[in-house]
């Protein structure tokens, strides 16, 4: 299981949290999603044989948020 933290811009309320949690939860291989509004952070635990950071990033963008590149 791989764990990653993504910096995400544009999350402002519980609705945003729910949107991201639901969207990422539909990706096969995602084990756990935790959204931290205060830190503008999304933490994901996933099986790297089933999904990858690119797919997860694309999904976050697809539902209307912006990733902050490191
Ligand atoms: Cu919101």
Give a description of the structure.
The protein has about 70 residues and is of the alpha+beta class. It has a single domain (about 1-65), classed as Alpha-Beta Plaits (2-Layer Sandwich). The chain is built from 2 helices and 4 strands, in the order βαββαβ. The protein has helices spanning about 15-25, 55-60; strands spanning about 1-10, 30-35, 40-45, 65. Strand 2 and strand 3 (about 40-45) form a beta hairpin. It is globular, with a radius of gyration of 11 Å. It starts with a strand and ends with a strand. It binds copper (II) ion (CU). Copper (II) ion binds near residues 12, 13, 15 and 16.
- Could you describe the largest sheet, including whether it forms a barrel? 4 strands, antiparallel
Give the overall shape, derived from the CA principal axes.
Answer: globular
The hetero compounds bound to this protein are: copper (II) ion
Question: How large a portion of the residues is in β-strands, by DSSP E?
Answer: 25-35%
Low-confidence stretches: none
The ordered H/E elements are EHEEHE
How many β strands by DSSP? 4
Q: What's the CATH class label?
A: Alpha Beta
CATH fold naming:
Alpha-Beta Plaits
SS-based class: alpha+beta
């Amino acid at each position: 299981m791989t764990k990653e933290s993504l910096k995400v811009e544009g999350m402002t309320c519980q609705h945003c949290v729910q949107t991201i949690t639901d969207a990422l939860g539909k990706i096969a291989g995602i084990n756990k999603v935790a959204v931290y509004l205060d830190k503008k952070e999304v933490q994901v635990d996933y099986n790297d044989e089933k999904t990858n950071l690119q797919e997860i990033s694309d999904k976050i963008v697809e539902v209307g948020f912006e990733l902050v590149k490191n």
